[in-house]
Every structure is written in structure tokens, then in C-alpha cells.
Design a protein that fits this description.
By secondary structure, the protein is of the alpha/beta class. It has 13 helices and eight strands.
Amino acid sequence: MGKIYMIGAMKGGVGKSVSVFNLAYSLQKRGKRVLAVDFDPQANLTTCFGAEDVAIGDLMMAVIEDEELPEREAYIWERNGVDFIPSSIQLSAVEAKLRLEMGTEKMLAMILEPLKGDYDYILVDTSPSLGALNINAMAAADEVIVTVNPQLLAMMGLQDFLKSVKKIKSRLNEKLNVAGILLTMCDARTILCKTITEQVAETFQGQIRIFESKIPNTVKVGESVYYSEPLIEYAPDSNACRAYNKLAGEVIAYEG
């Protein structure tokens, strides 16, 4: 039985979607069966995959309306060994509807739970907020990976995000845990990066795992997204690709 990982952040522009994209392929390279789910109305992960198909918003709406889901072949898209469910702006309308309906916190879980037996990892990309969609994602997930880039504004929301995870764990999903904090877009040459990285380590040491893998800030990441190719295909010898491969190893070791 696979595990569902929510990848979340309190601030946009921290490399969250790119990290889901590249982690999925790094895990797949290690022989793991991976499903990536774009659960963000901005659909950045969908852009990374270059996909257009039946979107997660359609599935959520079907569950809300007590309708049958289509066959999996209609909404699970495959690209070079990684399966994927895309998103679209329609997910914003779904979020508005979730606020009006009662008992909607586990709509996403109803979609993903039947799929867990087919995958080792289900990676859910989420929006940088604490709204109804992210509550659904936390209610469905087994683990949360929090992405943070070493900038002051990105750090400011980290404690609030972790408090939300704790609340969801106590109220909706007792199996939910924080797998770790992933530092992204790191430029080790700058004093600010070093200072905030040390601050994260001091604040959470012994409480929450901080992944040893730190994703560097490199132009190769942006280029690979432009061509809808993961780093493992576009720039396999880049420092960023090596960092994501190391991260995949850490995630697998965490399971063990």
C-alpha cells in the first residue's frame, strides 16, 4: 500500500511544483510507482508535465455531487513512467463550493484512497494557502513535505503552516505526520541563505526533520520547466538533479 505525500508551502514562488515534478521522476528512476496530482488551481505542475486532460476539479465536483467517477484511464495521464492527474482553473470553483457544502473535508481522500494500492507514492502539489483545498489535501495525506526557500517572507508563514498540520492531525486525520522541511532555491554563497538555513536548523532540530538535500537555485530548473522535461532528462548532471535524486533517497529511507 502506497503513501500519500502532500507537498505544501505558505508562500508561492518557492519551487514547490518543480520539486514535486522532479521528485516524482527521481523516485521513478529508483523503481518506484509514482502518481503526481496537481491540486492547485494555478496548475503549475500541469504546466511542468505539459498535460491537458480530465482535471482533478472534474473529479472533485463528481464526488461532491455524489456522481460516479470516470474510469481511471480517463483522468490518469502518463508521461515517461510517471502517472499524473492534471489541474485547471476550475479547481477555484470547486474550492468555493467546498466552503458551502457540509462534510467536504475528505473529498480528495475519496478519490485517492482507492488508488493507493497501485502506487508506492502519491505526491500532491497544493496551493500556497490554508483554504478548503489544502484542508482536503491534509485530510487525505499520510505525510507532509514543507517547501521553504531561505528568504525571510517564506519563513514567516512556516510556523502557521505547521500549526495547521497539527490541527488537521488532531481533528480530521490522526495518521498525518510531517515528513520534513525541504529547503529550495538555495544559494549557499549568500549570507542570507546561510543565516536562514541555520535558523531553520536551530528552530526545528529534534522536532521536525530537515532534509539534508537542499535544492540549489539554478537556471537549469527554469529551462527544464520550459521544455516540460524533468531534470533527470534535461540536465541529469546538474547540481539540482543530483539534489532531487538525493531527496528521493531520503524519502525512501524515511519509509524504512
